[in-house]
Amino acid sequence: MTVPRAAGVLAAALAVAAATLAPGVAAPRSAPAASPDPLPDSASVVLGRSVEGRAIRALRVGDRTAARRALVVGVIHGTETAGLGVTRALRKRAGIAGVDLWVVDSVNPDGMAHGTRRNARGVDLNRNFSRRWRRTGGPGSGYYAGSRPFSERESRIVRRWIERIHPAVTIWYHQPWGAVLLPCKGDAPIEQRYAELARFPAKRCLGDKLPGTATSWQNHELAETHAFVVELPPAGLSAKAARRHALAAAIVAAGG
């Protein structure tokens, strides 16, 4: 699907060809349907702490004066860390135009510290959100959904932040399927645009009906917003590919 490009987006696309993140990707501003609450002027916000007390931090890499907001999350499963390459590439640049863009490296720092998919209480955080939640697995299972929706501190932290900023776009990085995930039916212009810019495959019906996921919760509860998943390859990304994904994220976050 072809989406019209503004001049600033065209410039950004040329930057993709060079595999660098040129400062100041420009894109049209658009206000979300909901009137957002004021946010701190600071470039860093501690959203809360994990079960074991590790900080979950959001870093602002965009324009704090922009009406449009977006969110990029590098890690939710502690063993799927390739998204950190993308979030680091975003953090190395400053002043992404047209969007108040926030980056969270990981919402599961305990899982990363222990080398496990789950959080410190053994729960798969991406099964712990309320949309289509059901009991999956059991304690000790890699897909244990927890005792109830939002039973986990980390998923509640994510919920509060997303409800506060109402991101027009949220991008979650996972592994290992190696594709931008599209819904089973209907158009998916944002996902297709990302795939085009990142030069990355897009596939339908991979995980579209999984229970209790962060994306399905946001898309159901905040219908004026849009969340989607990028599944990175099992071996991760080269630095060049990470920069390409970061630029794709910046452009679609800004509405380009």
Structural summary, described in words:
The protein has helices spanning 7-17, 83-91, 109-114, 153-165, 189-198, 214-221, 239-253; strands spanning 44-49, 55-60, 69-75, 100-106, 169-174, 179-182, 202-204, 226-231. Helix 1 (7-17) packs antiparallel against helix 7. An eight-stranded mixed sheet has the order 1-2-4-3-5-8-6-7, with helices on both faces. The chain is an alpha/beta fold and 256 residues long. Helix 2 (83-91) links the parallel strand 3 (69-75) and strand 4 (100-106). Helices cover 28% and strands 18% of the residues.
Quickly list its features.
globular, 256 residues, eight-stranded mixed β-sheet, alpha/beta
State the end-to-end CA separation: 14 Å
What is the strand tally?
A: 8
**Contiguous uncertain segments of 5+ residues:** 1-35
Order of helices and strands: HEEEHEHHEEHEHEH
Radius of gyration from CA coordinates? 17 Å
What's the tally of helices? Answer: 7
Name the strands of the widest sheet in spatial order. 1-2-4-3-5-8-6-7
Q: Biggest β-sheet: count, sense, barrel? A: 8 strands, mixed
Mean pLDDT rating:
87
β content, as a range?
Answer: 15-25%
Described by the principal axes of the CA atoms, the overall outline is globular
Helix content: 25-40%
Structural class: alpha/beta
